Amino acid sequence: MAADNFLVSVVIPAYNSGLYIREAIDSVLNQTFSHLEIIVIDDGSTDDTLSIAKSFKDERVQVLTQVNAGACAARNTGLRYAKGDFIQYLDADDVLDENKISRQLKMFDPEVPGILFSSTWARFDKSIYEAHFTFEGVFGDFKPVEWLVTAFGMGGMMALHAWLVPRSVADAAGQWNETLLVNQDGEYMCRAVLASQGVKFCPEAKVFYRNSTSARVSSNKSEAAQLSKFRVCELNATHLMDVENSKRTRKACANLFQHYCYKNYPQAGELIEKADEYIEGYGGASVVPGGTTAFIILEKIVGWKKARKMERKLMQFKSSLNI
Fold first, then answer.
1. Confidence (pTM)
2. Could you tell me which residues come within 8 angstroms of residue 17 by beta carbon, excluding any fewer than 6 positions away?
């Protein structure tokens, strides 16, 4: 089948996204690839999200509504209704470049139909014109296990909407895990990568990731969020080890937990101790902590844990002085 004949289903979960959802939907309607269906799932919003979504008169826009159950449940609802040959996920506060989908589809090879397509992505606050694109270690073509080993070692991420997922891969990956509060996309895409025949990177395709809406910030601070982030590490390590138990995958899993420690100490409490146990069980990590210049100096003197606490106190002190 020629790329122009594919149908792409764009799944947009939305909860109290009235400030941003119009821009997100417009970025899909403005795609140079037009054979699309847009499925907006209003997840019990209490603002004007639903009315804004329904205001679009384009017949490609479908609006569903459900009792608030979380982004994963909303995405699962969207998947059940999606008829496309490819799935494009898009959060309601993020944006696609107008050529994103068309450029990725040009890379489709009918001889290898189970390939995941990724793209460049950059953060922004108010305007996508603020976005500055920088190279990430996962920007490239990889076999499935190689992609995860690289991603776990970096401790970074691939924005969810940077992916274009063949429906066959989405079906093989299964449903979104509705028990997870934070980093659900990392766990889902880990399964999707392993269910694929590999990852092909499209450097010309671009997406924009909004830095911090109030919902994202508040959800990442809770105790439940910390547990979710740790649970994602456990699940992803299991997913990878179930496919390949080798020296490189054990090191990758140790690095995954080490990055968790670096990013979440000391607020994660006892979960740091559990992560340390995993790191030891996998044979030790190889990644080193990063941070401010002050942290790097202190880390060499007192170790990374004490240095992280001291760095945090220094930042709090500067904040109190409005420095």
1. 0.92
2. 24, 45, 47, 49, 92, 93
pLDDT digits (tens, 9 = 90+) for 13-37: 999 999 999 999 999 999 999 999 9
Location of structure tokens 């073509």:
141
DSSP string, 7-50: -EEEEEEESS-TTTHHHHHHHHHT-S---EEEEEEEES-SSSHH
Task: Please report, as a single letter, which amino acid is at residue 83.
Answer: K
d(CA 245, CA 243): 7
Two tokens at 93? 């506060």
Helix residue ranges, H only, the chain: 21-29, 49-54, 71-81, 100-105, 144-154, 167-173, 184-195, 214-221, 223-243, 247-264, 270-281, 293-302, 304-320
Residues 6+ apart with CB under 8 A from 225: 181, 182, 219
Instruction: Look up tokens 């417009």; give the residue.
Output: 26
CA distance 111 to 34: 24
- 229-288 pLDDT tens trace: 999 999 999 999 999 999 999 999 999 999 999 999 988 889 999 999 999 999 999 998
Q: What are phi and psi of 80, to 5 degrees?
A: -65, -30
